[in-house]
């Protein structure tokens, strides 16, 4: 770290709090708070008190034990803690756990922006999924995340999308007829998960579920495989995705976690 805390400074308390807050917010939850505090030269007891206070005030949010990211209060101060950045930070650990048990699969988090899906995070235990990366934008009508979020739109917005869209076949499997896509989105909304059967990339299939905070579907997560699903694997992976989505929503909604800097 470039900044080291001088506790003898007359403004030491403010300096300590700001230095720790900025370091944790910039790190995004990758590094344990205890290690960041140590690099700043801040005693562990002081770090725990400061982190506890910042969590209580929603300046920080707890991701998992000892890991913190910028919280809702910081989001109101600027783009450094935007919804998308907080979603990506909150999703990191749950997505990593899902990728580790998912075998040859990739896990993505994405949001709907206009007619496109923006991918906010990606986790994979394999190097075999080079088709996507964080920051990629892909068409919503032929991706699992896109279909899930389109299905969650109010009917009037969904109809406007279907009437305005120009649906180009990306692969031989891409659904381009508005009537078929409309029926698929209705089915997706009813069953609660979306399917992309090699519609964006040849041989790559995915399923997706929404991330719901309160009552609002703010994002979706997907699991992609270079293989077809049988019914048993499909049910298992949908359940795993729903658990992961619930964990992300819980982290995003957490208001008063029990604080710990270690």
Helix percent reads 40-55%
Question: Strands of the biggest beta sheet: in what spatial order?
Answer: 5-4-3-8-7-6
Strand content: 15-25%
The Rg value, from CA coordinates, equals 21 Å
Number of distinct beta strands: 8
Coarse structural class: alpha+beta
Count of folded domains: 2
Q: Quote the distance from N terminus to C terminus.
A: 18 Å
Give the biggest beta sheet: 6 strands, antiparallel
The tally of helices reads: 9
Report the CATH architecture of the largest domain: 2-Layer Sandwich
Structural summary, described in words:
Strands 5-4-3-8-7-6 form a six-stranded antiparallel sheet, sandwiched between helices. Strands 1-2 form a two-stranded antiparallel ribbon. The protein has nine helices and eight strands. Helices cover 44% and strands 20% of the residues. The chain has helices spanning 12-27, 33-39, 44-56, 72-75, 83-101, 144-152, 155-164, 178-191, 231-253; strands at 60-64, 67-70, 106-113, 116-124, 137-139, 194-197, 205-213, 216-225. The protein has two domains: 12-78, Winged helix-like DNA-binding domain superfamily/Winged helix DNA-binding domain (Arc Repressor Mutant, subunit A, Orthogonal Bundle), CATH 1.10.10; 82-252, 2-Layer Sandwich (Beta-Lactamase), CATH 3.30.450. It has 262 residues and is α+β, with helices and mostly antiparallel strands. Helix 1 (12-27) packs across helix 3 (44-56), helix 2 (33-39) crosses helix 3 and helix 6 (144-152) packs across helix 8. GO terms for molecular function: DNA binding; DNA-binding transcription factor activity. InterPro entries: GAF-like_dom_sf (IPR029016), HTH_MetabolicPath_Reg (IPR050707), Tscrpt_reg_IclR_C (IPR014757), Tscrpt_reg_IclR_N (IPR005471), WH-like_DNA-bd_sf (IPR036388), WH_DNA-bd_sf (IPR036390).
